[in-house]
Amino acid sequence: MTTLTATDAPMLANYVLGNWHAPSDGDPRILRNAATGAPVAALGAHDLDFGAIRHYGRSTGGPELRSLTFHQRATILRNLGKYLAERKEELYAISTATGATRGDSWIDIEGGIGVLMVYASKARRELPDATVYIDGPTEPQSRDGSFLATHIGTSRHGIALQINAFNFPCWGMLEKFAPAFLAGVPSVVKPASPTAYLTEALVRQMVESELLPAGSIQLVCGGLGDLFDRLDGQDSVAFTGSAATAAMLRKHPTVIENAVRFTAEADSLNCAILGAEAEPGSPVFNAYIAEVVGEMTTKAGQKCTAIRRILVPEGRKDAVTDALVAALGQVKAGDPGDSETKLGALAGLDQRAEVRAAVEQLSAAATPVFDSLDLGDVDTENGAFMSPTLLTATDSRAEAVHQVEAFGPVSTIVGYGSVDEAVELAALGRGSLVASVFTPDAGEGACLAVGIAPHHGRVLVVDDATIKTHTPHGSPLPGLVHGGPGRAGGGEELGGMRAVKHHLQITAVQGSPAALTAVTGEYQTGAPRSTDKGHPFRLHFEDLEVGDSVVTEPRTITIDDIERFADLTGDTFYAHMDEEAAKASPIFEGRVAHGYFVVSAAAGLFVDPDPGPVLANYGLDHLRFAKPTYPGDTLTVTLTCKRKSLRPGAGYGEVAWDTQVVNQNGEVAAAYDVLTMVATRPVEGGDESG
Ligand code: NAP
Q: Among 20, 206, 252, 608, which one is most buried in terms of CB atoms within 10 A?
């Protein structure tokens, strides 16, 4: 934060074109501490050149990012996560002003840093050390294998415009930034105004880390000027906020005309369903009560995933109401800076006014049963404090109950008569981010989960086994889809590599094995191979090239081999041991070799036994036994370096080998990828490190 306004609230700056730009300070909007009303920051008017911002992202950020492989980008994300973790207390100190308790801020700050770390490690495991992503298996296009097709993902050449909601100023930004960054697409981040000062502080740390390539992130606090008018089909917009704003932006003429990729994470009336099999007082029932209270009070209920509808069997309404009223009465509310506080303030007085108005609307269809928690010694006039408010629906199908989102510590109990009715009521939310099902009965859990799944992005099923281990209903996780159909926005964020692929253009490429090997950087069966360098197991990681290969001596399989393998392993399945039974089977012509023997014998043919660069075999991928191997068949193996991936600093890299085991008729008996670790060249002094 740079210049000071007349009110002494620091003016938020924009980070664009590689520099911080202070806005003009004429008539700024004052952003206030949610708990005290004191000014925290000021949002001034700006006259940013959005054409230049978009151009800078595209012409500087894009090429910088695309010059790095997925793994190099992942390494930056991991280092950034570590850097931010070291400076997290600065963010915690600022976060209190948003009304967040320490626990709330943990979700936002450390949850956000966690997303970076998870994406970094998932990318190392699931993406290649390359700039081209291969999406799915190769598709044969001709009988002789000379014409193939594969799908590749390449970084789109636009910007990823990210518009965030006020409730998660750190996590909300980082969960969108991480996948775009990994995909090689520069981000332009627009935080929601009420809490933009926390996002600004986070972006300052990110810039100060000096880890990010130039142009990979820009920050705009306040309006987006004419940026929407400038977007085209290489750009994307990821929006989080209300369904109304999402609907308006989605209809922007440029978004429609230029087919700008647009995803929305909007509001949703998430429900938690108590199964009929969960007896009052049982562990699952108690876990349900605790979950509802947690979701109503964490972030003061300002979570898009919070439980808004408490669906319970009609006969359990009283028991649930009594248990919730008792539990809510125990919640420690008050100063968000007090480490004991579990319920802090809403993000501001405007937000509280909106929530109160929504409660008014709900009251037409539901009766308040709890709304007067002792808030302690807080300033309820200038601070946006509010008691948790529990209502009970007078009519289970009343529209307001399923449509009015009170974005605060507010939830409504709704009775249902049967599993089918519970599913119907859940669907009245017209699409939600998440629902949970609490039941000790797996059958009931399955009926409810499968029934509501089409209307939800995520379903959490809690039974006795998961009471202590499940993650909260309202916690989106980096590896799991976050988003929901219909009212929830129809978007899909996170979900592991799904979110990265969203920023890639998936293109079907058709061509010869050689062409596809050159395009993808991964050996395609049938492409030219090289045996010039001798046995590839003698080559260090750096010396090994995709396509380096060995063709083994032949080996004829005998009945004695089969007998000895059966004896050694105890695998005496009839097809290997009983000629008559094998012949009688619809598959075999007689006794066949064990598939695992074929794989073992293949290893016996292709390994180069002496110690060398190949350190270990850590598995096989895509193993298929394409043809039975009979006694008398002669097998030959072709082993070809398919894919390489360096583990920086580990002294080795991972190498996958295309393995084709072929019989005397040229038929493939077995095909698979052998996965190995191959040492890098020894460095001066004899120490092997990469
Ligand atoms: P909002 O009013 O829709 O604002 C969301 C974002 O859109 C803010 O950054 C806002 O900026 C921006 N915005 C508003 N009008 C715009 C325009 N014409 N052009 C460009 N940007 C514009 O929502 P909110 O009240 O801040 O957030 C609360 C809502 O978000 C709740 O309904 C909640 O359910 C939802 N939410 C959803 C998720 C999810 O993942 N699905 C997560 C969190 C929250 P300004 O603040 O500067 O106006």
A: 206
Ligand 1 contact, 192 CB (< 6 A):
yes
Contact 242, 267 (CB under 8 A): yes
**Among 227, 260, 293, residue at a domain's last position:** 260
- Euclidean distance between CA atoms 360 and 372, whole angstroms: 15
Report which of 132, 173, 246, 667 is spatially closest to residue 487, judged by C-alpha positions.
246
| Ligand 1 binding pocket mutation candidate from 304, 405, 411, 492 (most atoms within 8 A of CB) | 304
The finding on whether 190 has its CB within 6 A of some atom of ligand 1 is yes
Helix (H, G, I), strand (E, B) or coil at 51: helix
Cα three-residue angle 276-278-280, rounded to 5 degrees: 110
| Domain annotation covers residue 499 | no
Q: For ligand 1, is residue 245 a contact (CB within 6 Å)?
A: yes
Task: Note down the domain range covering 250.
Answer: 14-131+156-260
AA identity, residue 331: V
Of 260, 281, 315, the domain-final residue: 260
Type and span of the H or E element at 140: strand 139-140
Does any ligand 1 atom lie closer than 6 A to the CB of residue 265?
yes
The H or E element that residue 302 is part of is none
What CATH number does the domain containing 103 carry? 3.40.605.10
Pocket test for ligand 1, best of 164, 240, 249, 492 (most atoms within 8 A of CB): 240
- How far does residue 12's CA lie from ligand 1's centre (Å)? 19
The CA 240 to ligand 1 mean position distance, Å, reads: 6
Question: What is the 461 CA–ligand 1 centroid distance (Å)?
Answer: 29
In this structure, what token pair is assigned to residue 223?
């309006």
Reported pTM: 0.90
CA 561 / ligand 1 centre spacing (Å): 69
Annotated catalytic residues are 265, 304
Which atom belonging to ligand 1 lies closest to the Cα atom of 267? 34
pLDDT in tens, 627-661: 999 999 999 999 999 999 988 888 999 999 999 99
Decide: 242 in ligand 1 pocket, CB within 6 A: yes
CATH number of the domain residue 649 falls in:
3.10.129.10
Atom of ligand 1 nearest to the CA of 268: 34
Degrees, nearest 5: CA angle 213-205-119 = 60
**8 Å CB contact between 308 and 410:** yes
Annotate 617-632 with DSSP letters as a single string.
Answer: EEEEEEEEE-S---TT
Report which residue type is found at 63. Answer: P
For residue 595, pLDDT beyond 90: yes
Domain count, the chain: 3
Q: What is the model's pLDDT at position 5?
A: 45
Tokens of 327: 């539990």
49 with 75, same domain: the answer is yes
**Tokens 């809510």 map to which residue?**
328
Confidence grade of residue 479 (pLDDT, cut at 50, 70, 90): very high
- SS3 at position 492: coil
Under 8 Å between Cβ of 48 and 223: no
